[in-house]
Write a structure and sequence with these properties.
Elements lengths: L9 E4 L15 H6 L1 H6 L4 E4 L3 E2 L11 E5 L6 H13 L3 E7 L8 H8 L11 E3 L18 E4 L2 E7 L14 H16 L4 E5 L24 H4 L3 H17 L4 E5 L5 H8 L1 E2 L2 E2 L3 E3 L6 E4 L13 E4 L4 H12 L6 E2 L9 H5 L5 H13 L4 E5 L20 H8 L6 H9 L36 H6 L4 H12 L2 H5 L1 E5 L6 E8 L2 E8 L5 E4 L7 E6 L2 E4 L2 E4 L4 E6 L8
Parallel strand pairs: 1-2, 1-17, 2-5, 5-9, 9-10, 10-13, 16-17
Antiparallel strand pairs: 3-4, 6-8, 7-8, 11-12, 14-15, 18-19, 19-20, 20-25, 21-24, 22-25, 23-24
The structure holds 1-deoxynojirimycin.
The site of 1-deoxynojirimycin has 9 residues, from loops.
């Protein structure tokens, strides 16, 4: 049976930044509810909502203290119910961000577990006793420092946290934890949500804690083989998902496999006894990137490196993802999310800004796969420029900025604003009113007004916004939603050419991801209909010429499918 999510086009909403309805500077569920018609107008059919559970907000909701309630900043359960209902009336599906690897340290389970080793909830978390109070091993946390935090009342005992120290990891080896998380998820499935984005699920199994990760470095190091993609991840996941599918066989499971390569993504989406594990995977490895040299500073401060698209490696990467997932599911197609800098900041060509963004979107979203659009991307929104070290809300980054001599700080703030996740989480700019229509209050993240708003983009027929609408209309057609996919080998670096085919219909998508004119010849397509172009495209003799960052999409009824 065909599942609804085979045609999913997902719009990611970071709720605290989308629309504030009660003017406290933080976006909320009522704000989102008020903007559902806008989301619908984009031609998407699914919303991925970043976490809205009750949370101390140490990590903007990824630190959950109560899974059964909505955080008061975001509204009430009644608003959540109304949101789900209205979304469904508009044929929009809702995916909830489901945090299952860890809780907040304020969660009652952890608070109880901290009280005594005899707590009934002690085994819900991961502890290690050390004879002399030294750190149990050298494993590093993704948020800096060690994964181990000393228990204040028990100096010889540490608890495990892969992310912030206020986010202790749950012990999935404990069947009670697995059952408890199934109950939480069942509660939300019962509320009518259509799917879950499984946060950090690849980390739910850990290796033997009594070992160091082999390294020459001193101090904590990122030790993925010790806490990522271990075999028990699949075991725990299968049980969790099987239980949920019993109550909703159509539930869409989008797994966040941050470090998953195509082979792992295939493993996590393979079907087993008739039921899939995840239905799709998002990974940080979805696009090939290369590092850009950092600015030179007088101080010896090691700046993180910005990245850009490695267009030379792109064809291989596309083929690897498409091929690996051909038997199980579809790839996910995206550029940005709340953990990454914005697409326009990283990938746009400044000289050909608008058309480069349209061309990149075409290249990515017309492939076989599920597009995921990060809110504001449809406007061409850039990362905001943050003016203070603390604005990054990230200890490692503020410490680094503080080490830079004052004279060089403005340049460093600007540089880091272009590659950090927090400046990509700014308030959605709706119109020219105060705070760009997001709120009457200063938004939680103070930024300069964005140079583009929804209202301005609506009024411009050539805007990226209106282009996205046309692109998604096309994407919803069966040919682009479910048709076969084939990348054609071309000699010109940066020219991506692929074909889609369904029944008697086929399409050729050509995108020039370079700032040079490129030429392409394919006699099978000379009489095809032009579906649309971006930039300047000409046909002379038998060759197509695509000016910098131009796109050509052709369709024809006769199938010209290259020989296998
Ligand atoms: C992945 C989320 O996308 C990220 O924002 C969060 O910090 C970590 N998981 C921890 O939950």
């Amino acid at each position: 049976m065909k599942q609804w999510y085979e045609n999913a086009i997902i719009y990611q909403v970071y709720p605290r930044s989308f629309q504030d309805s009660d003017n406290d500077g933080l976006g909320d569920l009522q704000g989102l509810l008020d903007r559902l018609d806008y989301i619908k107008s984009l031609g998407v059919n699914t919303i991925w909502l970043n976490p809205v559970f009750t949370s101390p907000q140490v990590d903007n909701g990824y630190d959950v203290s109560n899974y059964f309630t909505v955080d008061p900043h975001f509204g009430t359960m009644a608003t959540m119910d109304a949101l789900i209902q209205r979304a469904h009336e508009l044929d929009l599906h809702i995916l909830l961000d489901f945090v299952l690897n860890h809780t907040s340290d304020q969660h009652p389970w952890f608070q109880d577990a901290l009280k005594s080793p005899k707590s009934l909830f002690r085994d819900y978390y991961i502890w290690q006793d050390t004879p002399n109070g030294q750190v149990p091993n050298n494993w590093g946390s993704f948020f800096g420092g060690s994964v181990w935090e000393q228990v204040p009342t028990e100096p010889n005992t540490y608890y495990f946290h892969l992310f912030d120290k206020h986010m202790p990891d749950l012990n999935w080896a404990n069947p009670e934890v697995r059952q408890a998380m199934i109950e939480v998820a069942k509660y939300w499935v019962g509320k009518g949500i259509d799917g879950l984005r499984l946060d950090a699920f690849i980390h739910i199994a850990k290796a033997d804690l009594g070992q160091n990760f082999p390294t020459d470095q001193t101090g904590p190091v990122i030790a993925e083989p010790m806490y990522a993609n271990l075999p028990n991840v699949v075991t725990y996941l299968q049980e969790f998902i099987d239980e949920l599918r019993k109550i909703n066989p159509d539930l869409f499971i989008l797994g966040e496999g941050a470090s998953a390569d195509p082979a792992l993504a295939a493993l996590y989406t393979r079907t087993n006894r008739g039921s899939a594990l995840c239905d799709a995977i998002v990974s940080f490895r979805n696009l090939p990137k290369q590092a850009v040299p950092a600015p030179k500073l007088t101080a010896t401060v090691k700046l993180p490196l910005a990245e850009q698209l490695d267009t030379a490696a792109l064809p291989t990467s596309i083929v690897q993802w498409q091929t690996a997932l051909a038997q199980t599911t579809q790839p996910t197609l995206y550029f940005s999310n709340h953990d990454l800098p914005r697409m326009a900041t990283v990938y746009a060509d400044r000289k050909f800004e608008t058309r480069s963004l349209k061309t990149l979107a075409t290249m990515q979203y017309l492939q076989r796969g599920i597009p995921i659009i990060y809110y504001g991307e449809e406007l061409g929104l850039h990362n905001a420029e943050l003016a203070r070290a603390t604005a990054f809300q990230d200890q490692m980054t503020s410490t680094l900025i503080d080490q830079v001599p004052e004279a060089e700080r403005p340049a460093v703030l600007q540089y880091l604003s272009g590659l950090h996740k927090t400046p990509a989480r700014q308030a959605m700019p709706w119109d020219d009113s105060a705070h760009q229509g997001f709120s009457e209050h200063e938004p939680w993240l103070r930024t300069q007004p964005a140079p583009i708003t929804v209202a301005a983009a609506e009024a411009d027929p050539d805007s990226i916004l209106n282009f996205y609408r046309k692109l998604f209309q096309l994407k919803q057609q069966p040919l682009f939603a479910t048709g076969k996919f084939r990348l054609l080998l071309v000699k010109t670096a940066g020219l991506i050419v692929y074909q889609r085919q369904l029944g008697q219909k086929s399409a050729l998508v050509l995108t020039n991801l370079t700032s040079e004119t490129v030429t392409y010849q394919n006699d099978d397509w000379l009489n095809a209909d032009i579906t649309f172009t971006v930039g300047q495209v000409t046909l002379d003799e038998n060759s197509w010429h695509l000016a910098p960052w131009s796109t050509l999409v052709l369709q024809q009824d006769q199938v010209a499918w290259p020989a296998e």
